[in-house]
Design a protein that fits this description.
Arc Repressor Mutant, subunit A, 11 strands, alpha/beta, 40% helix, elongated, single chain, 4-stranded antiparallel sheet, 5-stranded parallel sheet, Rossmann fold
Length: 227
């Protein structure tokens, strides 16, 4: 599933993003309120983790703008604003949960998973199907032709990224930043090895082959054109 973290304190932002990625989520990061507002309004996310005290535009205003525009993605406030009045204000504005700093990452992760299980995200985000490949995003399961495919967290996140952006050619640099949170180096074969392992599970025993290599550009997932 795809999450957005809006946090302008650099170490905190990187800590939360890294932890969520290690838990198998695809995570975008906005480091100020204006970028967070733009991304929340224009991209599709399954959940947004939002600070209150942000540069450019505070979290209260971001949430107000989202709800006024009909954006109903679940929002979890993660903030140092810990008074009862702040909690009440956040919930009244339409937040789905409110967690104060400092916090235990295990609690944040539990709250994220609970919100995602509630089904507040749009139902068409719950499953992705391409040919006979089906991804159950809520349970993080993949099947092909009705057969369960056992994937690691990273493999599922990679498959989800490819499936969400079906037919797009994704460069290695984008895959590296989204799945491994690293800058792509031309002399590393991490991406190619990961794709090869995923292809072995998803494609080797099935037809049609869905994961395609576009030479010199990257990888794409789609039903190949006949002929």
């Amino acid at each position: 599933m795809k999450l957005l973290v809006v946090e302008d304190e650099s170490k905190m932002a990187d800590y939360v993003r890294q932890g969520l990625m290690e838990a198998g989520f695809i995570v975008d990061l906005a480091r100020n309120g204006l970028d967070g507002h733009m991304m929340a309004m224009n991209e599709r996310y399954d959940l947004i983790i939002l600070d209150v005290m942000l540069s450019g535009m505070d979290g209260w205003r971001i949430l107000q703008a989202m709800r006024a525009s009909g954006v109903q993605v679940p929002v979890l406030f993660l903030t140092a604003r810990s008074s009862v009045d702040d909690r009440v204000r956040g919930l009244e504005l339409g937040a789905d949960d409110y967690l104060t700093k400092p916090f235990a990452f295990s609690e944040l992760l539990a709250r994220v998973r609970t919100l995602l299980r509630r089904g507040n995200a749009p139902t068409h985000h719950d499953r992705i199907q391409i040919a006979d490949l089906e991804l159950d995003l809520a349970r993080r399961r993949a099947t092909r032709a009705g057969r369960r495919i056992n994937l690691t967290n990273k493999e599922f996140a990679l498959l989800e990224l490819l499936a969400r952006r079906r037919s797009e050619v994704l460069p290695r640099s984008l895959i590296a930043s989204q799945i491994w949170d690293m800058n792509f180096a031309s002399d590393t074969n991490v991406i190619d090895v990961a794709i090869r392992r995923l292809r072995a599970k998803i494609d080797d025993d099935f037809e049609p082959k869905l994961i395609q290599t576009v030479r010199g550009m990257g990888y794409t997932l789609d039903i190949p054109d006949e002929g």
